[in-house]
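name: query_chain
kind: protein
chains: 1
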Amino acid sequence: MLLLGGCDTFGIGAAPPPAPALRPLDVRTDDLASLIVALDLPRDVQPVEDASRADLDISTSSKGARHIKATLVLADGDSVDGGLPPLPQGHTYYLLGFAPKDQAALAEVRKWLAALPPQAAPVSVFTVTPKLCSRGPVDAVASTFTIEAALPGGPPLTPLRGPTPLAALNGGKPLPNCRPG
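structure:
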C-alpha cells in the first residue's frame, strides 16, 4: 500500500516575489533621448519650469569628446508607468524629459558612441541638476529628494541620486519660493 500526502498553503504566508534587479544607466547602449528623469520631491517642493539640467560628458583617449548640456522639461510618464519605485509618504514624482533639440543631440551622441571601436573605452559622466522651489515652508535639512531614471519598456534603473537633503542643492540656503501661476 502506498500513501501519498501533501500540503498546499495556497500562497498564505508566502514570500512576495523578489523585486527585479536594478541596473545602472548605460550611456553607451541606452536611448538617453527617451529617458524619463523622475524627481521624487516633498509635496511642497516642485521643479522650476525649464530650469533643471542634465549634462552628459563623454571622452575617449583617441576619438575626441562630446559634451551636451540639456534642459529638462515636463514629460508625459505613460511610457514608464509602473517602472518607478513607490514614493515615500508625503512625496510626489515630477517627470522630466528632454526637449526635441536635446533629444536630437543625444541621438547623435548615441550614433557616435555606437561607431566607436571597443578599445576606445569612452569615459562618461551623466549628471542631473534640478532647480527647485517651494510652495510653503520646507525643512531643507530634514526633507530629502531622489533622482530616479526610467526608460520606456526598459528594466528598472538604479537611482541617479539617492535620498539627499534638499539643503545640498542651494549650499544650505532655503529654496526660493515658487512663482504663483
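note: The first strand starts at residue 36 and ends at 42.
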